[in-house]
Amino acid sequence: MSATIINLPDQSTARIPKVNFLTKENGLLSWLLTGDHKRIATLYLISITFFFFIGGALAGLIRLELLTPQADLMATDTYNKVFTMHGVIMIFLFLVPSVPATLGNFFIPMMIGAKDLALPKINLLSWYLYVVGGILVIYTMVSGGVDTGWTFTTPLSTHYINTNVMSTGLAVFIAGFSSIFTGLNFIVTIHKMRCPGMTWFRMPLFCWSHYAASILMVLGTPVLAIAVVLLALERTVGIGIFDPTKGGDPLLFQHLFWFYSHPAVYIMILPGMGVVSEVISTFSRKRVFGYTAVAFSSVAIAVFGFFVWAHHMFIMGISNYAVLVFSLLTMLVAVPSAIKIFNWTFTLYKGSITFETPMLYAFGFMGLFTIGGMTGVFLGTSGTDIHLTETYFIVAHFHFVMVGGMLMAFLSGIHFWWPKWTGRMYPEKISQLAAVVTFIGFNFTFFPQFILGTLGMPRRYASYPPEFQVLNVFSTAGSTILGVGYLLPVLYLTWSLKYGEIAGDNPWQATGLEWQTQSPPLTENFLVTPIMDHEAYDYDWLEHQKESEVTSVG
Amino acid sequence: MSDSPTIAHDAHEAPHHEHPPYQRHHFETVEQQADATNFAMWLFLLTEIMFFGGLFTAYLIYRNWYYPAFVAASHQLNIFWGTANTAVLISSSFTMAMGVWCAETRRKGGLVLCLVLTFVLGLVFLGIKTIEYSEKIEKHHVPGFHYSLNSFLNPDSDEAAKAAGDKPMPLDMARHTEIYFFLYFAMTGMHALHMIIGIALLGFMIFRAQAGAYTAGHVTFVENFGLYWHFVDIVWIFLFPLLYLISRHAN
Predict the structure, then answer these.
(1) Which of the residues A202, A263, B165, B207 has an alpha carbon 20 to 30 A from that of A425?
(2) CATH, domain range B38-245
(3) ipTM, two decimals
(4) Which pTM was predicted?
């Protein structure tokens, strides 16, 4: 068995296709007014990377502050602002659009054999809305920040705080519409733009998971929008809807907010699961085990995901019966998630596994997401939740799912499709190193926080009792390793834009339609509209294609 | 694989079938384009339902909690203007539907007429809404701005309350009428905002229709706008009974 499946063209003769979506037109305006989903994905990739590093720098400040028990690096007020801005940026400007707006935008049309998303102008509009939201967040930061936490908890945000709640709210509102338009576009595209022969059950699982995430975006985000509008009205006019002194109920805000924000975590994780399905199949040379189950588990996660929001409110005074029901429903989400993990594991079984970088990140995803998911069960159980909620346990839990899960999946996908996107390979050895460094750094950073949480260290404070210091030092040390792990890809991926090896059409010998065309693709994606005459992940079909290619040339 | 550049070159000489000018390059057929945009519009309306859904949820909860306050406060709404407005809005939906039909059957004159009528009816609706809002302002029923409880504490001093036979309410219940009026303004205001956006689009469409844009076979925009207009209408069909009618019964 060879140690790698990389199959590159002869580097002495190979060159990047002269005409591709990157070179088709030139000039800034050809980018800013483009309707091409691949160019919009590129714009998105640049902007979300920018915000990721701002959010990451804020995370670094948080960890530095927590190096010592006293609040000595910054004032406690400043600390509140730093962790709030970290949350707002990472959630609304990085995690929600991360995979969908970049990889989804780029590859969904290609995977289903379409020339573009159904609504290119709406797609561009969605990027502009994102940018406006991002600018508002930056405005918030430079004009003094906001310190409500990313959850805008009432009545703190409406009555007690004098910081920039309004501009942050507006930013979230606008970025929300960006996300709605992305989701809407995906649903329409997957319904109406599939090429001949591309039935629902021949689509790559990447499309299925994006479809499920899009349903959540379309149905959930408007509720966040109205919640933010009501919050703004409460804050400015004092209409009383969330104000107990006037008969309003602050819990109503929690309900409206989490009706979006819990499904939002599935908006964040589902596209990542789509990436992992593609990567695991490609690097095990096997069809994804239980394709239909994996496809439907995405939809099941989307459906269940809408009925668990109140588990964020177990200690906020909702009724015991509601706690009981929402606790049960929360456990149920574990079922489709476990279906995915088990099916990926079975895909690996007797597969011809190779360990290229995307696969390493995907393994990282599987391990860390499993830990993150299992600890979610602790928090879904009302008894343990009362002890663990608002402690570092919960911080560790959602960072395992979001950073350990989603960010690993994002990096896996970026490496996997980099050759297709740019036409050049990333350097393999150093990127494998980066994947390992990220994994180690991540565990160093966040695993101690589980222990801190069970010991009772509360979240969102700048200082803590001295006996927690050892574990916090571990965590801060880990975060520096993690930071290196995230900086490395930026460096070598930028380097590879000019110096990377020419990738050719299909360096991984993958089966998706996106790999059966040139890299980088043409603006129209395909020369002729493809006809899908085989199942997804059909490696025999791919072998057969290669044979017939050879005979026709000979 | 290294020969892909030559293939790439061919893309530009690939034969192009004759397409109508309004068909966008990434669609195979006009039907696919119409299908996709229609479907997108329905999805957008779904997000709108969820958007208004938040307000309806709030209404449901607070009506349950503060039932007497909601009943008394709803007596303050002007049933005459509310009914008139409902009639105006339903008529505008009719003219809009006729407009879509005119566009489909390529009647330019009819389309322009229908759009103008819809435009005018939309403005009439907003005009009536202004009358109603100014009544609320006069009676200090705008939450957050010198809100007055007088109509609920002393119903005899208030014509509308007297006519409905309201009894004086204890202060702590009367206070909650403010929440009713907030919901009234938020829901009808959000609805009016959708009307204003619709009217602006109608103005744009009237110009385009005069230039013959929608009567040459490409009617997607008119159709989708029609869906939007009917949606805004349907929201009102829910608002009218919930805000005006539900607490009104023969004494």
Answers:
(1) A202
(2) 1.20.120.80
(3) 0.90
(4) 0.93
